[in-house]
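2024-03-11 09:14:02 INFO worker-7 job=invfold-0412 stage=load source=structure_tokens
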């Protein structure tokens, strides 16, 4: 299990359109927000990523670097980008399933075609959102077993504003006896 204030697994993944996303290259950002999504087959993911793309500038104003990530291959990632439209949101693909598991993401198996007629991969990861500090430590995590009821991006912006204004530490770090 990932723990707040502790190092997260490394991530270096290919990006749609070329290049790589490397978590270790945080630069001057306050946080990197990793938005793990299920894949092209998920209509809820497309809607969620479109919403995030529309708010990208608001996250950037707060010093938050964004990336959407899935285990989809390059072709399926390109189709997702086409579905969500012209976007400033970097989309990383080809997440190895073992690395998804290392991040604490739940894995699901295919149930065939989804409601939009796209075949689910044999195995894929369920959603998760992580805020990672530039030093590579976990600040916030929300991991799900289902595609619905995800964290609201406007709420996350408010939480980031609070964390910045109050220099609020990552919570949930206690591992001692209970």
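2024-03-11 09:14:09 INFO worker-7 stage=emit residues=178
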């Amino acid at each position: 299990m990932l723990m707040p204030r502790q190092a997260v697994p490394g991530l270096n993944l290919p990006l749609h359109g070329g290049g790589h996303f490397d978590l270790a290259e945080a630069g001057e950002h306050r946080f990197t927000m990793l938005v793990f999504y299920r894949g092209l087959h998920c209509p809820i993911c497309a809607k969620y990523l479109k919403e995030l793309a529309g708010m990208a500038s608001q996250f950037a104003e707060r010093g938050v670097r964004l990336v959407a990530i899935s285990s989809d291959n390059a072709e399926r990632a390109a189709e997702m980008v086409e579905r969500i439209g012209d976007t400033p949101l970097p989309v990383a693909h080809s997440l190895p399933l073992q690395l998804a598991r290392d991040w604490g993401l739940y894995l699901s198996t295919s149930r065939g075609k989804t409601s939009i007629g796209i075949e689910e991969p044999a195995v894929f990861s369920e959603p998760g959102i992580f805020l990672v500090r530039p030093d590579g430590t976990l600040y916030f995590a929300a991991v799900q077993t289902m595609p619905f009821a995800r964290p609201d991006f406007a709420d996350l912006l408010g939480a980031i504003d609070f964390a910045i204004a109050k220099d609020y530490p990552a919570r949930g770090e206690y591992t001692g006896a209970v």
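2024-03-11 09:14:09 INFO worker-7 stage=report msg="The two ends are 18 Å apart (CA to CA)."
2024-03-11 09:14:10 INFO worker-7 job finished
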